[in-house]
């Protein structure tokens, strides 16, 4: 029995026995989307664990309960059973759903529950029964990272043996092979010094049951990389993305390296995006191929129109950090204009044309980045696209030119993405009814997300001086 074939509690227990699991790890997400976990001995794995779960302090989780109502439960989903490829002891991992022990209902701010509701809502609309999602999460592999923020000082410093800034460093000896800025796309070793490490990451992902499509160096200097994984249904793809981040970080640490999914860790070079591929299927048949532009159906074009129409508010979930908007600037391949096109990587939505099979027809939303919570981001994208289908929105004409090089008169006619997280959140305040349909997102979730982002990210960023401001203004 493979992990992907586990469908019931009894099968999950048998899977643990067959793999001689010594420990059971229960993983769950906080509101922003970072995995948390607790571990119990394997002898505690029984049917009651799946039904009653384990108690946790919800007030200690970011964006969750107040201390006056802190008791919560995490209940393992048996279908998520996977042997953890990182731990020394044989450990069976489950991803958990979060429940309120008083009402015995799923917790409204559990991101995984929101993704589950999105899938259910899709079926209830009758438009489709499955949304397939394929995220391409880019990341940097650094040799060293240091940072600190105090009331009287702040700094960050990252380093990589590949870094363009290290051509003159005394490495005893320095052998060269440093990747220049924007010169990192597809070089072979020795310039690509991380090929073997990414290969180990890929094999570890496959050991966990995640199918890898490709791995390669990305555009930026200093170890920017990508490992492509196979698409999956919306909820499973979000689960896979959590495993992806967990495995990539831990394999890097084995080699005394560190990984960041921060969208823009280096000034002056490309940031890390998470181009997200979407397609809708019904009854085993794809709904996006057709006879319209780029081989798309009307359904696909309406889906694109929904994404573009709601993009300003959508970015509050797909690009949810202040750092996200340091990537969304001209000159670094990040799409800042809300247009669509085939093959054109300067548009926010691209229709890949590399395959002719109808089953491969999909749209690629290029704006998201890997700082996002996959469950919330994928659910929000789906809800925006469904709104476009239900309202039969028209995406307008495609833009088949390099948007970065358009004359200002033409460029100004194309709507732009928000320029800051604060602006995206303001758009979310004004435009979120499409997210509430089917009770997928709730007013509580929207309000809590906005408040959390303002209180914990926007306000602290706004209030603190930066090293650059000292350089600009100290001797003013």
From TrEMBL:
Residues reported in the UniProt entry to bind ATP: 213, 277-279, 345
CC per GO annotation: cytoplasm; membrane
Record localization: Cytoplasm
SUPFAM superfamilies: Glutamine synthetase, N-terminal domain, Glutamine synthetase/guanido kinase
Keyword Phosphoprotein: yes
InterPro entries to which the protein is assigned, alphabetical: Gln_synt_N, Gln_synt_N_sf, Gln_synth/guanido_kin_cat_dom, Gln_synth_cat_dom, Gln_synth_gly_rich_site, Gln_synth_I
Keyword Manganese included in the entry's annotation: no
Residues bearing the modification O-AMP-tyrosine: 404
Any GO BP: nitrogen utilization
Binding site for L-glutamate: 270-271, 327, 333, 345, 366
Source superkingdom: Bacteria
GO MF annotation: an example: glutamine synthetase activity
Family statement drawn from the similarity comment of this UniProt entry: Belongs to the glutamine synthetase family.
Alphabetized PANTHER family for the sequence: GLUTAMINE SYNTHETASE, LENGSIN
Protein's name in the database: Glutamine synthetase
